[in-house]
Each structure stands twice: as structure tokens, then as C-alpha cells.
Task: structure prediction
Amino acid sequence: MSMFQRQIGKQFAILLVLVLIWLAVEFMIRFGILNPFYELNLILIGINIILAVSLNLINGFNGQFSIGHAGFMAVGAYGAAMITLKTQLPLPLALLFGALLAGVFGVLVGIPTLRLRGDYLAIATLGFGEIIRGIIVNIDYIGGAYGLSGIPKIATWSWVFWLTVLTVIIITNFVNSTHGRATISIRENEIAAEAMGINTTKYKVMAFTIGSFFAGLAGGLHAHYFYTIQPNTFNFLKSFDILVMVVLGGQGSITGSIIAAIFLTIISASLQSLAALRLVIYALLLIIIMLFRPQGLMGTKEFSFKMFSKKSKDREEKPHGTAVGQ
Amino acid sequence: MEVFLQQLINGISLGSIYALIALGYTMVYGIVQLINFAHGDVYMVGAYLGFFATAILGWSFLPALVMAMIVCAILGVVIEKLAYKPLRNAPRITALITAIGVSLFLEYGTMLLVTPQVRTFPQVLPEVQWKLLGNLTVSNRQVIILVITIVLMVLLQYIVHKTKIGKAMRAVSYDKQAAQLMGINVNQTISATFAIGSALAAAAGVLVGIYYNAINPLMGIMPGLKAFVAAVLGGIGIIPGAMTGGFLLGIVEAMVSGYGKSLYRDPVAFVILIIILIVKPAGLFGKNVREKV
Amino acid sequence: GGGGETKQAADAKEIIIGGNLELSGAVATFGTAIKNGAQLYFDEVNAAGGVLGKQIKFDVLDNKSDATEATNVATRLITQDKVVAIIGAATTGNTMGYMPVAIDAKIPIITPSGTALEVTVDPNTKKVRDYVFRTCFIDPFQGTAMANFAIKDLKAKTAVLYIDNNSPYSKGLAQFFEESFTKQGGKIVGKEAFVPEDQDFKATLTKIKGLNPDVIYVPAYYEPVGKIVKQGRELGITVPFLGGDGWDSPKLPEIAGAAALNNTYFTNHYSSQQDDPVIKEFVKKYQAKYGQVPDTFAALGYDTAVLLVNAIKNAGDASPEKIKDALAKSKDVQAVTGKLSFDENHNPIKGAVILEMKDGKQAFKTYVKP
Amino acid sequence: MLKVEDIHVYYGAIHAIKGISLEVPQGKIVTLIGANGAGKTTTLNTICGLTKPKSGKIFFEGKDITGVDTQNIVRLGLTQVPEGRRIFANMPVYENLELGAFLNKDKKQVAQDMERVYARFPRLLERKHQLAGSLSGGEQQMLAMGRALMSRPKLLLLDEPSMGLSPILVKEIFSIIKELNEQGTTILLVEQNAKMALSIADKGYVVETGRIVMAGDAQELLESPEVKKAYLGG
Amino acid sequence: MALLSVNNLSISFGGLKAVSDLNLELYKNDLAGLIGPNGAGKTTVFNMLTGVYLPTSGDILLDGKSIVGLKPYQINQRGIARTFQNIRLFSDLTVIDNLKIAFHSHSKYGLLGAICRLPGFYSGEREIHERSMELLRIFNLDHKWDELAKNLPYGEQRRLEIARAMATQPRLLLLDEPAAGMNPQETQDLMNLIRWIRNEFDLTILLIEHDMSLVMGVCEKIYVLDYGQIIALGTPDEIKNNRRVIEAYLGEEAS
Ligand SMILES: Nc1ncnc2c1ncn2[C@@H]1O[C@H](COP(=O)(O)OP(=O)(O)OP(=O)(O)O)[C@@H](O)[C@H]1O
Ligand SMILES: Nc1ncnc2c1ncn2[C@@H]1O[C@H](COP(=O)(O)OP(=O)(O)OP(=O)(O)O)[C@@H](O)[C@H]1O
Ligand SMILES: [Mg+2]
Ligand SMILES: [Mg+2]
Result:
């Protein structure tokens, strides 16, 4: 029973900290202490966290090599934006619709492609991302190449913050359950997982669907904060950006994804004045970090303050990332 | 019929370029199991070297081509030593991320050096148009690229499967430690792989630069991606597969543009790719060997 | 408390003008040319003592050719760097992306090359956006002008549209060309598209050849256009190719080859090879500074800077509010692409020329009144 | 022929080999026995350069080979049949054998050696063109042995060659080892099957947690009560 | 009725007939061995029994019902668990997580319960945890519950793999060379463990092994496979003295 109580106590403490962070930022925004540039980047961080954590479920925990995440984000963004533009439904419903639509796409993409392995799966997911974008470009009803503009800016700091928290909680809870273990076992050794009674197809599709759902949610938030969405925003380079966050943070580490999303968003914003040099620096940073921490910033561990205590076991942390290749 | 044949020519000519880039891609992949996303950018660097040699130094075609191949071979080896070699024992996706880093570095490093503007090649390879069967047009450059692609494919296939260095490459690709126990120099073998792959990319860059007559620092992104698709389509790591995949992709794109809607060319090409992969999960030439349990 | 802070900015030693431009990503060429063009003029002004006794600081940030980044950049320019006006973005899409931020903050913006109608006019309310201006043509003007030319001068009856599928500019021009062309009895016999990264256009060109049109309208930027014209001629297409101001670049004949470009026409603000002294002077200065011949984007970037500085001078005060008002009243401002005034929709009133390519040189064909 | 002097090997923070010294005289069979995780494989890997010792020296035929690259050590005539076979699963059987002779430039000799290997392991001849990865465990072990023989080593390191083999094949493998030795190959043999190993060896070392705890004449060890108790199953 | 009955089971790979017309019957509580030369097809039989390979012909009945064509996870859920010749642990996970994964099919809360952390989640997790620890205790691995599986010594990895198979609560346990790489002492312990779990869990066991001390020591009946065919079936004593088996497998003078 004490384990249960300790759990509840810990969760309560986390919740309290979150409420405090939220209130503090909200207060600073209200009173103009935090100017809109910082607010915008906080929101971008939130959206990137959702994207990275959801892709981490697919790539890091399930070990499926997906590089089409931006496609699902696009589905969510367009789905949610269309609801807002064409109907009078409130934001939560629009977001839900976008996310569900992305989830449905996740199932549709997942079932046929997840029998592919490694790089073949990667190219198929990349292909799906590009197909989705190619279709959007060609549908004038949803703005074609122009994209959709005039989407009301109704996704506020509060929405983004709490939906980010919700995403992280749901995915963390999923990962730390028997379903999460089933998901992880597929990454570790698919043959053994099947021999242990785990329906690998089901769990692959499930990870893919949940991942897509949250990518769609991030897309919806994006659309309702940045006024405009364009198909080009969701091209394969965007998928790469998300992938970089996941790997940089550590595949299989949710806190790692969060840290990487924050880090990369800040880096990107602070290099804006450098033009081409900006990407050269970004590129060098990527290479250097990967060379010095091949397992990502966090490996598969989760960040905790206990980490710093001497007692923590120094496990050899050789990471096991996505099963790339045959 | 005539239009169909012309479209077939168009497709093969486009496909031979994809194939040419895909060869290097697939070769590097076959040996080190790394999706070298920077391959498309080495191709771009090759094009710029060719441009530099012909437009600035006034060299003729062949020396320019050779110089670009040599310099890119060295570039490939250096990239491998600095960015990939330290990660040989890391998860493969880590090297993939550094490959993305190298790719961005080459793109924007080049942009810093030469500005983003388009450059055009001087006329180093005079162009001749041939008319076949009445109205079909083929240019000497198309034929040159096609022939070079096929020759290089055969050559590569020969190197990898028939020569000693090729055998070493395959051994290294499977188990580096065991390869060392055979007396194989793993570092040299991998360097050779990157050198050959990058030289091929450079050749493609120069040829394509001359063929289309316009190069820019981001020119490697799309062909790189398409070549990767072509390599996967054929079964990544398999040399004839890369070539077939390249041709197939080129022909599909030409036919969709010619007979369907050009607007849907890329989505349709990807749909076909995915269908092929669902039917043949290891690509056209790949054997879907299940791991022996 | 935005008002108070901008006041401070107005009192500062220098006037900060923001640049929200594509310096990396897919259309880095456009953004970079605009930046160079604008910088050239600002340097001239600063060398001559500045404006209102203050130096101009051109604060350019990279929006990575992405609408989201453009919003991010605009927010930073406005709230961190306290700019009084923003130049950019190069494309309609990115301009539309960040525009709401500027409008909310009441900072005037001028896009040098965002051509779509709805950039300056809200399509829902049909009202002009007070804070948004542009230096370039709008789509209807060029599209209509070229359609008229095709029907009247080239006696074309049928046309094929070949569009850059990722570019609203290209789509906009094509749309108005089509409207005007069909209204005058012409027929669009085919609509095809490409993406700007394409290298090979032969498949589609083969198809277009089979459609046998009198003219082919390719409203796109010079890099793909050069390849299209070249490959089209190789396939034996002899009919005229037509285009818009995106064609204007010394690179075009280099890419396509001079011979291939014969019998092609495009609408433009000016001709970089015209004898006009203003243009000659600009081309000379630009070349001296950057070592390249300026393209349309460079010229538009320069003109955007001209318009802004002129407005600041006329306003007598570098506050965003005043600059906006003065911009709207711009009248006959001498710039590279013509003598510019804004109409009630904040579009520049300037005539167009139709240029013909002859042996790699631009030749003046006709003048089209605004 | 081989002399290992007080080597220490670390895996990160793990001190796997804590000062091992041993000697393999020319023409002899020397065996290394010990429990799981004692450090036998690590010792062999260190000898042939796959892992680098932190301190200590290794001499082969009087030459210091400490820190020399594996491929150069192999050139000197020392090779290993690694633990877990490590055959090239993606290549057919015959190419695996050819790779064993990678350094041998004499084509005729290679062909002869190949014949000899096939004669010794007829099963490999049957499976000549099959991908090595689809061989059964025992077949793979034969292939690994055959591949090592192709390089005509002066000193052969064998890491648990009998693992996973049927009793008849275990005997076969041991008789091959003996035969090879009689033909002049010096052998350093690591075995779990201590009884068999000691019975063919001239000399034995017992390894426990990274240290040599006992050394001596193979026959003596076979009869030593401590060895009997710990490694021979009573 | 036989728990498992295999009728005329065959499989070929390309031209190679790896197993042909195999017949085999196991009754509840049997402890049987499957031996034979390398490459005889033993592992292949296991692979067919567990759905990894689809037989070319023949039938496999579990409790009288055919399981041919079922996916490996379905077969496992029906009560057949196995270990692998080349250890396949979830090597980067902890020892206890390896077991918890195997408890998956028997977990008592759903997706919603997991995501919302309903009370059922906590009780379900506690149950899984306790049962995993119990199994670890049985296999004498409880002191290492928090180690990464790959850091265990080889012998313990083998034991962990058996424990993991047991966690799926099988009726039939297939062990592929469980003593490979173990020293005589460890092998002895393993024998006792196998006997003990058979009795304790009322289990049927079929094992492949080359270590004759183990096979002869624990198995009550032994199938001998050669070139994909059964060449002998009998008690350890019968097998030891069977000429064909000696020729093909044991060699003269079984040591
Ligand atoms: N790559 C590695 N990283 C970390 N530790 C290692 C590594 N390889 C071996 N070890 C450790 O070093 C020690 C010695 O291992 P080694 O493989 O040499 O033993 P061994 O005597 O060959 O055992 P076995 O009989 O199981 O083959 C063991 O504790 C092992 O866990
Ligand atoms: N996937 C496969 N493709 C081709 N051949 C195979 C495949 N799997 C097994 N074989 C062949 O089938 C035969 C039987 O192999 P199996 O692994 O069942 O042998 P085994 O009896 O388990 O031997 P060992 O005791 O050595 O493990 C072998 O000759 C092997 O080469
Ligand atoms: Mg060992
Ligand atoms: Mg077996």
C-alpha cells in the first residue's frame, strides 16, 4: 500500500509544481513581463515537446523507424483548422477532431506498412508524409499551395501548456504499464516478444496510432497559434527536425525528448540573425553532440534528481535505438 | 505510340540520373548500413567542383570530372573519419543524425562560400540532338549519362562481388571484428567504400550540372531523397537494385506526368513505392530473409 | 504596453528597420537578393547622413522559408528589437504567415515580392489592410497584361499553363491569365505543374507538345523557367513561352541558352538591360558591391527600401503609425522599377513592360499602362 | 612462441582481466579453463588485438605485438576462432572459406586448402553454396574452424569450439585439434569442457575472475582435486 | 488424450527437406528430450511448434486442436512457451522487466486503466510485480532483479530465459539447448531445476540438448532426429545402446 501512497504523493507534488509554473508564466504574460517573443517560443517549445514525445513512442520505445511525423502533424493541423474555419465549434473539439483524424491516418498507414522493417519502414513513412503533403497541395478547398490563413489565434499559453502536460502524462503512463512493456519488448527483440505472447502487430499499430494522434494534436495547436498553415511547413525536413529532437534527447527517454525540444527550440530562435551560418552552426552542434553523447542526452534513462546522488547505479548505458535496417 | 516512346526515353533519362546517385548511396549502405543522407550533398559539391574547374579554371570536361571525383572521394573519406567512424559502435540512428548534420553542414557551408545564387556551366560538352524514328528526340548527353550509369553499375557490381576488396567490404559489412580476424583492414575498407561512393556522387554531380546547366547549394536535397527512394525500391544495399529502382522511379514519374496529372507526380510515385514495398518488403531485389531463430 | 516602448525607439540614435526574409531554406535565393538590394540603399542613405539625422539599422532575421519561422522572426523583430517597420517576406505565403503579428502590433510591413491579392486586401471583408504594403505587381495585373498581349499581339487562340505548384505567385498569375485569356475568346488547352526542385521537365513538356498550344504560359522563377525553355526547345517545341517578372535575371539566358529563349516574352517592371540611367546606375552599384548582376528580387528589395526611407522622410518621425500613413501617401517615388505610387489597395501603381528575349538579350516589346 | 605478461583489461569501469601472464610454447596445446565470465574470451581477444590492454605486454615469436592492429597480428600467423562462431552469415559457405585465406595470395594453395577443409568437413561441401547464416549451429562451428584453417596459422586461438555440438562432433573437433597440432600448429584452447580440453592439452591454466589461479601440466591439473571439484563435475 | 500430437510434419527450405514426416506425442507431465546431430532439424521442429515457421505439410494438435497457421503469440497464449538456442533476452531491460513482459497476456487491466492510472492499474501492477519476484526467487535470480539482463553471466541468462518462458504460464515448455555454455556444476543445478519445475507447475517439457549428462539424467523419453527423421525413440538406456544413435550421434564409447 505504501508504494501506492508514495506514487500518489509524488504525483501530487509534480502537479503542484506544474500549476506553479503555469501560473507564473500566465502571470508574466498578463502583465507584460514576458513579451510575446518569449511567449511564442514557449508555445513552440510546448508543441515541439508534444511532437518529440509522440515520435519517441514510435521510434524510441517501439523501435519502429518512422520519419513521416510531419505528415500526421499536417493532418491534425488541417483537420482542426477546417473545423474552426467552417464550423463554429470550440477549440477543444477542433483539436480533438484534428488529432483523431491524424490517429485514423496513423491506423491506415500503420496496418499495411508496419510489416516493413528498418529502413524500408522509414522510407514508407517518409513517403506517406510526402503523399499527405502532395495531396494537400492539390486540394484547393483547403488552400492548396497557399495554405490556410485567417485561422483565429485561439490556442493560448494555457491550452498549449496543459495539453503538453496531458500528452506527456498519457504517454508516460502508457509506457510504464504492461502495454508499454509490450511496446518496448518489440524494440528489444521482436521474435522473443512474439514468443512471449505479445501481439506485435497490435502493439506496433497502437504505438503508431497514439503517436500520430498526438502529432495531430500538435498540428492543431500549431494551426491555432500561427494563423497560417502551409503544406510546405510539413515537409520531410520538418520530420527530420522532430527526429533529431528524439535522438538528441535519447530514444526511449521522455524527459530526454522534453529537454531536447526545449534546447533545440531555443537554439533555433537565438540563431535567427545568422542566415546560412545559422544552419552551419546547428549542423555542427548536431554532429558534436552525437559524437560525444551517441546515446542522446539522456540515453534511455529518465531525468530525476536521484540521478545526481552517488547511490545511483552506474549501469553501462549502451543504448538500443530504433532497429534500423534488416 | 510515338509519345509513349518519347516518354519512355524521358523516363529512362531521368531514371539514369536517379540511378547514378543511387549507386553510391546503396553501396555505402550495403557496406556500413548507414543511410548517408549527406550523399546528395556530396553530389552537389561535385557539381560545384566541376563548375569551378570548367567555368573558373577553364578546364575541359574530362579533367574536371576526374578532379571532382578525386576531391569528393577525399571529402567522403574525411566525412567518414570525422563524423561516422567514432559512431561505429553506436546505434545506427545516431550516425543517421550526424549524417543529417553533415548534410546541412555541406548545404549551408557551400551557401556561405558561394552564395545561394544559381550557377551555370559553360558549354564544355557540346550538345547534339538526335532524331530517332521520325520525331523522337534524344540528346548525346542523355546517352552519355545512361551509358556511364550502366558501366558504373557493372563495374561496382564487379568490384563488390568479384574482387578481393569487394569481398573484404562484404565481410566488414557483416562483422567487423571477424573481418579483422581474417586479416582485413577494416578502416581502409570502409574508407575505400566512402571514396568510391563519393566519387560516384561527384561524377553524377558534374554530369547533371552539365546536363541541366544549373546548380545551387540545395540542389542535392531532392535528387538525394529520390535516389534514396530508388535504392530502397530496388532493395537497399543491392547494386543492380539501385539501378533498377532508379529507372523505375524515373519511368513512373515520366508516365504520371505524361499520362496522368503532373500535379500528382510525386504522391503517385510514393504510392507506387509503398505498394511495391508492401508486396516485396525488402525491395524488388531484396530477399526477405527472416532471421534464423 | 507596446506604445510606450516604440516611442522610446523613436527617440533612439538609430532607426531600426526589420527584415523578415528567407535567408535559408527553399527560397533562400529570393530572400538573399532582397536583403542585398535593400541593404545597398540603406548604406547609401547612411553614407549620405541618414534620414531625419539618424542612421538606419537594417536588422534582418532568417525565416528559413517557413511561415511559422516568419511569425517567430516578426515577433522577435517587434518585441525584442523594436523595429519601426518590416521588409518581407519574399513570398506571399510567408508574408501572410506573419502578417497578423505585425497588424496586431501596428507595425507597417512591406513585402517586396508577395504578389497575391489578399496580401494587402482582406478577402473576407474586402477592406485594405492598413499596415500592409507591397512593392511588386499584383497577380491580376501581370496575368491580365500577358493574356492581352498573347491574344492581341501574338494572335494566340490556345494556351497551356505550366505552373510552379508550390508557389502561390505562380498560381495567381496563371489564374488571372486564364480568366482574361478565356474572356477574350482564347482557350486553355492544358494545365500542368512542376515543383521548383525539379530538374527534368521533359515528360510534361512532351505532353504539352502533344496538346499543340499557340503559347505556353510559365509564370515562375527563372531557374526552373530556364530549364523548361531549354528542354522544351530540345523536344522541338517552337511556340512562344510566356512569363512574368520572375523571369528577370541574367541567369535565364545562361541556363536556357540564348537561342532557346528566342520567341519568349515576359512582363516586367523594368529591364535591367534598359538604357534608363537610374537602372544602369543601380546595376552598376549592385555589381560593385556583390559581384553579381541584380535580379528582380534585388531590384524590388532596393525599391522597398527607397519607399520606406521616403515615407520616413515625409512623415518627419520614425514612428510606425506615421510611417504607415506616409507610406500610403507615397507619390511618384523614383525607384528602380519605376516611379511608384500606392493605390487605395496599397499596391504600387506602375506600368509594366513586356520584354522579348532576343539572342539572350532583353528587348523592349510594349509598354502596358497601370 | 606466445608470451603474455601481466595484462590488465578494462571494459569501461569493469576490471575484467587483473594481471594475467601465460606462455604458449611452440608446437604445444595450451588450454585455458574457467567458469563463465572468468575472462577467457577477453584474454584471447586481447592477444589478437581486438581489445587493448591497459597495461602488460604480449610477445609473439619474440616480437612485441601489444597494441598492434588485429589485421597485422593475423599477418604474423596468429588467428582466432571466435566465441559464437562469427561466421559471415550473409555469404555462402565457400566465400567464408575464401575469406579465411584473405591474406594468402597463392591461388593454387588456397584451392588446395579448400579441398582439405571440405574433406575434413564433408557437411560443408554439401552446403557449399548455402548462405552460412542458414546453417545449423554445429555446421556453423565447423565452418568457423574451417575458415581459420584456411589462413594456415602458426598459432590458433580457439574459443569454446565445442559449444553446441553433438557428442560425436565434439570428439571430432577435439581430434581435429590434436591432428592440427601434430601437423605443427600451436594451439591455445579455451574450453568450458575442461575434461576434454585437459585430456588433449600439454599445459593448462585455470582462470577465475580475471586471474590465473592455477597453472601446470595438463595431466596434473586433470588429477588435481580442486580442478576436479570445480570444473569436472565432481 | 495427448497434450501435443504432431502428425507427419514436414518442412523444406528451397530444395532442402529439413524435417520430414515427423510424428511425436507428448502427454501431460512428460519430460522428453529431442536429440540428434547438428543440423538434424531439432530447432526447426521447435520453430514449427511455436509458429515461427509454417510447416510445408502435416499437422500439430494441441489438446486435439490444430495450431498450424497461428501466429507465435497466439500459440504462446494457448500454452506453449520456449527458450532459444541463441539466447534472446530483452537484453537492455532489467531482469524483472523481462519477466513482467512475459506476464503481459495475464495482466488484468486495460489500456484506459493504464493511461488514467485507475485503481485497477495499481493492483494489477502490484500483482505482476509480486509474481515476477516470486518466479525470480524460484530461479534464484531475485538478488539480481534490478540488473540489466545483458550484464548477467551466461548461465544466469539461460536461467532467466527459462524463468521468462515460465512467466507466460505455459502447459508445454520447449527448451532449446538450455545447458549450452554451462559448466558441469551449473548443468547439475539446471537438471534439478528442470525436474522441480516440472513437478511444481505440473508441466510438460520437451528439451533439445547436446549435453548427454543432462539428457540422460532428466529425460524420461527421448526422440532422436537425424536428417529430419525420427530414427529412434525410447528411454535413456534404450537410446544409449541404440546402434543407429551411436553411429549418427553419440559416437563409440559414450563418455
Ligand atoms: N564488451 C563488454 N563490456 C563490458 N563487460 C564485458 C564485455 N565483455 C566481457 N565483459 C565482462 O568481462 C568479464 C570477462 O568476460 P569474458 O567474456 O572474457 O569471460 P569468459 O571467461 O570468456 O566467459 P564465457 O565462458 O561465458 O565465455 C565478464 O565479467 C564479462 O561480463
Ligand atoms: N531458414 C532456413 N533457411 C534454409 N535452411 C534452413 C533454415 N533453417 C534451418 N535450415 C536448415 O535446416 C537444417 C536443420 O536446422 P536446425 O537449426 O533445425 O538444426 P538443429 O537440429 O537445431 O541443429 P543444431 O543442434 O546444430 O542446432 C539445417 O541444415 C539448416 O541449414
Ligand atoms: Mg568466453
Ligand atoms: Mg538447433
